[in-house]
Description:
By secondary structure, the protein is of the alpha/beta class. Helix content is 46%, strand content 18%. The chain contains 15 helices and 16 strands. Strand 10 (221-224), helix 9 (230-242) and strand 11 form a beta-alpha-beta unit.
Amino acid sequence: KNAVVVTPTASGKTEAIIVPLIERMLSEKWDGLSILYITPTRALVNDMYYRINEQLNYLNVSSDYKTGDKPNINTKKLVNLLITTPESLDSLLCRHSDMFLNLKAIIIDEIHFLDNTYRGDQIRILLRRLKLFINQDLNIYLLSATVNNPEDLGNRYLQNFEIIVSKDKREFEITYLKDLSEAIIYVKKENLKKILIFCNKRVSVEKFTKRCEELWGINKTVMHHGRLSKSIREEAEIFMKESSSGVCISTMTLEIGIDIGNIDAIILAEPPYTVSSLMQRIGRGNRRTYKNRIFALYETQDELNFLKIMFDLAQNYSIEDPDYSFDYSVIVQQIFSIFFGKPNGVDDEYFRNIFEGIVPFQEFNLILNKLYSDGWIEKKVGKWYPLTKLMDMGRSEERRVGKECRSRW
């Protein structure tokens, strides 16, 4: 059955979905590409692949991954399980749609990271395109640790779904501190070996990294943020995973579930902006126990009061529920993607099946007519067709990506 699964960080969401799906695959003898696993970031794609590949190989289940960093997969000899990002799925769907003909299930991990953003709206339409192309019985699973209203979330992406919620609470042990140097006293006293420090901004990460190098030593300190190269981020992840002790200072790049081993304590160098972000951050600590050791730094009494309110909300699972708004720019991008995969044209009924219920169809028609008047598409004998300008843009992008991949190789 389709499902929305909401359960705390490190409680086993991935295994709870993949294990029964693999059991179905083996017992029902699924062939070809059967399971698609979508995550928000390239780092999570890589992490998930190396996390499950060995176990799948043991069962003779083949797997692979595709991202912008690893764009090439063998479309002639398809694996059973493919891990990818929303953007790479879009690319595959418009260039190699036949590879999805045997697809049975889609898992979308960390859905809170995508929902109510451009990428979440892109996923909504991609799911429609896949179901229309393959069949309406495709199973879809949405996984998250921080969703306030799973019913609303499910209604955006699914039909006929179940909600599975486990609010199993881990105990918080929180110490509020005025300065990072105070944390060292507790770290030594409690024999805490591996520490993850969260900041809100890159500049803060760099500032706290210098401070940590003074307190912990340069050989025990690494940092992790989006501006760093992929290789440096991976070195930090490997260090934290393999070292017996160390400290990593990070932005939200490590909020989501990249495996960096067991973390003894979390230090919040700056208050998170939202309760869901707070829950993601503290959920990275003590993943193998039911007790979270947390240190929270504050500068003013107001900041301390704010932190205490945030933790009260987190302990009661009171997550913010922002109003949903659709990003209309996704419509143009998806129209172009559809035409690049279907250069022989599509009719109004096809568009209606894809977009109706996602956006009012009269508004969709306004966008379509604008693309027509601007010379991107034309209509002949009841069907819409891409014009040369649109197809050339797609080919140009394909050549750019290909050149970049050859250069990297």
